[in-house]
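Posting for a labmate who doesn't have an account.
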Amino acid sequence: MFGRQAFVGLSAGRYGVLTFGRQYDSVVDYLAQSTANGNWAGTLFSHPYDNDNTDNSFRLDNTIKYASPSISGFQFGGTYSFSNDTNFGNNRAYSVGGQYAYGGLLVSAAYLQANNPGNGANGAITANDASFVAARMRVFGGGITYSFGPATAGFVYSNSNYLNPTGNGYLGTTPLVPPGVLLNSLKYQNFELNGKYQISPMLFVGAQYVYTHRKLRCVERRHQAKDSLVRIDGGLQPVQTDRRLHTGRIPAGDRRLDVFDTR
């Protein structure tokens, strides 16, 4: 019924905000502010397959969220999402995050874990909302941005780990690995540099460079050779990298216009 967020809650200036419902996790609330896609650029600037959810590919259902007031520039928060299942740990999720802001400086960090995301129509991350379907998802990272006059520069690191992943919403029915290979784990490390210059209140230019290191831990079901996989300690462990350079001239009211992608 609700595609984005739907929640109710209580707010008190001295104590913070407590909300209940379908909501964003702490990675989106805190870490994403340091990324280009989560701050000023939008989906086309997201990390491969939005593996760290900094582009909020999914929301958390059945969620309790707390956000503290700002305390001398420091703010923190967290979420807990119920499984809505007799198996308490099946498809539940929790996250924590925080940030420190002083003048033009912003430092942020967050952690997210979900058990069995995308498995079934109930729980924290439902099948029609998940980016990756896996036995477990863990994401953590940190970022820093600094604004000086009309310019802003930032650096972000994020680490995403998926245990026994079986699918991805961006790939659809395309398998994550070739037939005959069982994927035990999938890990992404994202390193991002970004910058923005505000030309006028209605126009800015921005650029982003992302280096993504992807590591797969596999087991070969068949004994035939596979050119794209290397045997290591009885398993298969291919390592791949992805480099992306994005630049764009973007009106402040439209985050998707005149964007160019070169690899």
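Reply:
Got it, the structure tokens are right above this. The chain has one domain: 6-262.
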